């Protein structure tokens, strides 16, 4: 203030060789004061120099207008003060020349001021869970079930992909011909006979009848001698 405005503000101590600002000698001190107050450098300097105190003690002063000492204790108080001030002969002890000062605690209360965040991680998760349960009817179990469904879908997809890859590999390893390999004789016969054709193993054979044939004597096999004997007897 003294450096830029050439005068001191009345709320601050007066430096040596400076004077307080007044409108007669310093008519422009008010705009100068507000310009200094609004500067960034002044704010930084004030923040660095005028930091928040860690401990602060405030004393409240009360004044009593009662006469002290009282009439009953006046002689004793004056006697004690006269005894303590016996070396000072020029001091006259009377009621107007003494004062009583009591310093004591008005209230035995301890107040602690601390700062804490309004919302932390725990409260944030709690509020989100409460809103989710209120508006959507969900809970922690629902979230776990959704997670389980997602994990199951991913796991089933992985299993299907692995099975598809395994089938592709097995198809590549399978032979190109489903027929059994030919023997050496078949190979030689096919080489020497151009009309040779390999029999189809899958050819359907003649089915066996399900019912037995009729029981006729003509279908039975007999010896020739026995047939001749029977014919001679008939003759």
Describe this structure in words.
This protein has 235 residues and is mainly α. Among the domains are: 2-49, no CATH class; 121-173. The protein is 45% helix and 0% strand. The protein contains eight helices and no strands. The model has no long low-confidence stretch (mean pLDDT 73). This is Amiloride-sensitive sodium channel subunit beta. The chain crosses the membrane at residues 132-165. GO terms for molecular function: ligand-gated sodium channel activity.
Topology of this protein?
Elements: H1 2-5, H2 29-38, H3 40-49, H4 74-84, H5 121-136, H6 140-173, H7 184-192, H8 224-234
Write a concise keyword list for the protein shown above.
single chain; about 240 residues; mainly alpha; 8 helices; ENaC; sodium channel
Short description:
Belongs to the amiloride-sensitive sodium channel (TC 1.A.6) family. The chain contains eight helices and no strands.
